[in-house]
Predict the 3D structure of the following.
Amino acid sequence: MCLILFAYRAHPDYELVVAANRDEFYARPTAPLAFWDDAPDVLAGRDLQAGGTWLGITRAGRFAALTNYRDPARLLPEAPSRGRLVGACLRDAAPARATLDRLAAPAAAYNGFNLVLSDGEGLYYFSNLTGDYRALAPGWYGLSNHLLDTGWPKVRRGLTALRQALDRRRDPDPDDLLSLLTDRTPAPDAELPDTGVPLDWERWLSPLFIEAPGYGTRSSTVLLADTAGRARMVEMTWDDGSRREFHLDWPLARHFYPEPRADS
């Protein structure tokens, strides 16, 4: 996963709205969004090479998503797959804080990553670049291949589009959110980050939707979780143009607002 845009307790009717793109090598085998045979409560796509995932939810209202931190100088060739962390977080029934406490020590063995995790009662951000986690306040967030809310052009552009899409309609249309994720506008050279890859790759990787040699946006996912405990998840798989949609009802007791709401 290379771009996650999300509104957390920032909409009058929705606890969490997520619009995310998964970028990956085209040759890497992938299974589309579905409930897992070996973990029937988990709804997620699956990396068939390493067995993990990049984003998913569960029937109990647990949500997790991960992006890689791009820095070729930090790469550990023998590191385990980061996608397995998302699967482990979704399978875990413990409170999110307990899950993240257990993750802190082994996280250093992985290549750089950012993890967003919700247990239905709170939303948390963790990066193994900083080694700690924090609870997120209600608001609007963007995450790409650096730390949370790093102002890369694609993050700024995506958050503006997300806010506009949610402002247009009281009941967000998932197809509107999928559409904003297809923005192929590259960033001007003067605004490109320097992440240690060649300039042509910085250019290819700068749009919300990536099309590069052998690599690009493989799927887009939208999650709409409302304040009544209902969730709707839609995935567009760009390899074959297929669309999948799932609806879940989450335990109402897990959805409440212990903190002030963000302005919408």
Notes: Residues 153-168 form the longest helix (16 residues).
